[in-house]
Specification:
Blueprint lengths: L3 H19 L20 H7 L12 E11 L2 E3 L7 E2 L4 E2 L2 E2 L6 E6 L7 H8 L14 E6 L2 E3 L12 E8 L19
Parallel strand pairs: 1-9
Antiparallel strand pairs: 1-2, 1-6, 3-4, 5-6, 7-8, 7-9
Helix pairs in contact: 2-3
């Protein structure tokens, strides 16, 4: 005979183990799996999760571009097109992508500091000082070619900034990729 108290204790232990292994419970539409991580289709909801809103057609006070590289070992993870953006829906959050180049666009009617954490919230991919989505290993962060120590969520997205998130096997020495070759329209 199974005792209700034993079942309750077992369930509580499983919840604790899940929280230790994976952090907090993911929000709806977030990805804790391995890549690829698609662009979310619920643009309004994901933008709101990141503290963003639709600014389609508004006059811009700020227009900057940051490049993001995510590496799973030596393999680049695609940053999808149209995170926070849709021509068909006439939707553009202040922070969005247009293509798969890894260029993050900050287009805002007000000057503000937008962060890498907001972008990942909008994308629906968890980002902490220790992990990126469901990738397993050690996370190394570089900003503009220099090693960054701290929570990458707070990295400000400034013009022509380059951010690299590299997840490698434990003990493996991560390699900083070559600098991003900005297309002429962004130089």
């Amino acid at each position: 005979m199974v005792r209700p108290a034993a079942v309750g204790a077992a369930l509580a232990a499983l919840v604790v183990l899940a929280l230790i292994a994976g952090g907090t419970t993911p929000a709806a539409g977030t990805s804790r799996s391995a890549p690829p991580w698609p662009a979310p289709t619920a643009l309004q909801e994901h933008a709101a999760d990141a503290g963003l809103r639709n600014v389609w057609g508004e006059r811009l006070a700020e227009h900057v571009h940051t490049h993001l590289t995510v590496l799973d070992g030596d393999t680049a993870v695609t940053v999808p097109a149209n995170i926070g953006h849709s021509d068909r829906q006439r939707f553009a959050a202040q922070l969005h992508t247009h293509d798969t180049s890894g260029i993050l666009h900050v287009e805002s009617p007000t000057r503000a500091t937008f962060t890498l954490g907001q972008f990942f919230d909008e994308w629906g991919v968890p980002l902490t000082a220790w992990r990126v989505g469901g990738l397993h290993g050690e996370l190394t962060v570089w900003v503009d070619g220099r090693r960054y120590i701290g929570d990458p969520r707070g990295i400000a997205l400034t013009n022509r900034r380059e951010v690299v998130l590299a997840v490698t096997s434990v003990g493996e020495v991560p390699r900083l990729p070559a600098p991003f070759d900005w297309p002429p329209q962004y130089r």
